[in-house]
Amino acid sequence: MEAMKLEKSSTVTKLTYSGILVALSYVGSLLGLIIPGSLAFDSMPAFFGAMILGPVYGAAVGGVGHLLTALINGFPLTLPLHLFIGVQMALIVGVFGWVCQKERRIVAGVLATVLNGPLSAATSALAAHLLGLPFSGWVLFNTMVIPLTIVSFLNVSLALILGNILQKRMAR
Predict the structure, then answer these.
(1) Cα 6 from Cα 80, distance rounded (Å)
(2) Annotated domain spans of the chain
(3) CATH class assigned to 2-171
(4) Does the CA dihedral 65-69-70-74 come out positive or negative?
(5) Per UniProt, what is one GO molecular function of this protein (predicted)?
(6) Angle 27-145-122 (CA atoms, 0-180°, nearest 5)?
(7) CA dist., res. 121 & res. 101, Å (int)
(8) What is the pTM of this model?
(9) How many angstroms separate the Cα of 71 from the Cα of each of 101, 138, 148?
(10) pLDDT tens-place string over residues 123-155
C-alpha cells in the first residue's frame, strides 16, 4: 500500500513539474533570438524535463510547450503545421531523453541538435509544402535551417548544463 501511495505521489510530482516546465516553455519563447516566439529558448525546458523526469514527461512538455507558445503567438505557421511540429518536437525530446537514460548525454545532445535543427527544418518545409502554404519547401528550409540548428544547439546545451548541475547537487 505504501509503495502505491509513493508511486501516485511520484506521478503527481512529475505532472506538477511538467506543468511548470510547460509554463517555462512560454517564458523561454519570450527570449527569442530573432523575434519572440519564433526561434527562442522554448524547447530548453522540455529537454531539461526529459533528462530529469524521463523521456515520456519530457516529450509531453515538448509537444504541449510548442503548441502553447504557438497558440499564444497566433499559430504563425497555421494550426496544422504547428500540430505537426508539436508531434515532431515530442518525438525529438523523447529520443533525447531515452538516449540520456543510457548515460550518453553528449550523443543525446548531438542527436537532438541534428534532429531538431536540419531534420526538423526539412520535414517542416515538406509538411508546409504538402499543406499548400506559400512559405514552404526550399524557401522555408533555407530560411530556417541555420538559425534553427543554432538555437537547437543552445537549447540542448543549456538543458544539459542545468541537468548536470542539478544532478550533482542532488547527489550531495
Answers:
(1) 39
(2) 2-171
(3) mainly alpha
(4) positive
(5) transmembrane transporter activity
(6) 105
(7) 26
(8) 0.89
(9) 31, 25, 20
(10) 999 999 999 999 888 998 998 899 899 999 999
